[in-house]
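Weekly structure sync, notes
Attendees: PL (lead), two postdocs, one rotation student
Agenda item 3: pending single-chain targets
PL asked that the sequence for the first pending target be pasted directly into the notes so everyone works from the same version. It is reproduced below exactly as submitted, 602 residues in total.
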Amino acid sequence: MFIRFVDLPNVEALKFLFILLGMAVCFCVNPHALADDQRPNVVVFLSDDQGWGDFSFQGNINLNTPHIDSLAQRGAVLERFYVCPVCAPTRAEFFTGRYHPRSGAMGVTEGKERLDLDETILSERFLKAGYATAAFGKWHNGTQFPYHPNARGFQEYYGFTAGHWGDYFSPPLDHNGQSVRGDGYVTDDFTNRALEFIRANKSQAFFCYVAYNTPHSPMQVPDEYFDRLKSRSLQMKHQGRPAEKEDEAMTIAALAMVENIDHNVGRVLKLLEEEKLLNNTIIVYFNDNGPNSFRWNGGMKGKKGSVDDGGTRSPCLIQWPKKIPPNLRVKQLSGAIDLTPTLCAMAGIPTDKDQLDGLDLSPQLTSATAATLERQLYSHWAGRIALREGSYLLDADGKLFDLIQDPTQKMALNAQFPDVVERMKKDVVQWELEVVAPAKVDARPFTVGDRRIARTELPARDAVGKGPTIKRSAAAPNCSYFTAWKSLEDRVVWNIEVLEPATYEILMQYNAPPSSVGSWIEVTYGDVVIQAKVDKEFVGKAYGNENDRVERHGESLMKPFVTLSLGRVELKPSSGECRLQLKEIQGNEGLEIQGIEFIRMP
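Predicted structure, written out during the meeting:
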């Protein structure tokens, strides 16, 4: 464009020049940036332990999911979409756009679920771009600041940071780093908070992450949903090998929990429509892994924990009426690692694509004629690796399958295609050397004293119990506490790093029967040694299983605990073992400990 400034009055010419310069500056800062009124809102739903087949739009007539189905009808379905076999790694891949071993999220508890602090994650990208950001529900990528969601780009957080909780009705929760009590059934509660956030931020672009922790066990759901499901007969059953027996009570509970999720997704969709936000809101729905039990799942092999299709395949539904055509079915091989580059591209937010493993799939989502991209997609868990390429799957045992012709993985093709098998095996070895091998044994300490928050929680799940009598209340550490703490040789140990020099008060949450009153506790950290006397009895009553629909097998029951101040100490930035032990024991019943807290004094 050529402008003849001589044709404009001097003042008008200067004004026009400034406008052009401003446009140029904006383009240089971010050539992809969208105007404020064009930026899409983003709402991401992530369910926990829901299977590929736990939707009525997939053909499952055991349940009804009309609101989630509507996303498939009004938007796109990524039909060949893959996540990790378990919770925290999938969340890491979603947030980073990178394979989970690169980001440090190599486990699901005891700190192994944390995202490395040098990772730039999706919420941080949206916050930097001027979006209002919030997360509601299960975080599962770190508890202590700076791993906490409020330190990772979320301005608002309400939920719990562990892998699961032991009771889903008004449990203890975290609201922006402070302990609070939930209000009702967790899925309903998280949705209530998400609705409040959307209403409060409807006049600006927002990124709202709603991470439901259902249908993960314990299997708890309000009567309305359970009674409706238990009155039906299951018409579609698990189709695996005879040894993989379906627990029908578990299936009914899980599907009832999914119908509750669907109801809550519908509440969000209704609000977006009422506020006239639906047309320019990107809505994403996907699962974090395969189903947590053997139930109808399209006949696919495996469930949660498996790198086969049954453990890693999830539908991914993406609706954006303004850009994505309805009823679009995308055959592109895709995964959780693709969501960061794709959402950023659709929101006009730049990414360092050379640092990401994921692909920008926005062309495939906005056009039915976009080319299919050739790519490889790896699944990894517990030392097992599967590779997908085109229609092929090379499973963790080195067997080759054509998933288009044989989605149930019944006919290995190694004899027909030995060259393909050999090449893909070499690719797996190379990927393992590049991605998995550098992930060292997790030695990251638990951080204490981040300047952004006065309270640091060190729960029992993050500790190691050592000694002849002490044990966890359940095998899964997430919501467990230590019990039978009654030997002078017992220890509770956290590997910590103190970030800020300050005076800290150390608090301990405990249970003590009357006979244990008078016992002495010692806490040791480096040269610091303090002792405190247990001067109050408290016997909390275990609860949680009264709401179970099926017997729990891994989750601890819940208990109330009381707090004992262990004293105040001056600490400098340092790292090492923080150790609790008994110095004097009264009685032989022992103590129970839920965790400790460091409170930085003003």
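Discussion points:
- Residues 141 and 504 are 25 Å apart (CA to CA).
- The chain has two domains: 41-250+282-432, 446-600.
Action: rotation student to compare against the earlier draft before next sync.
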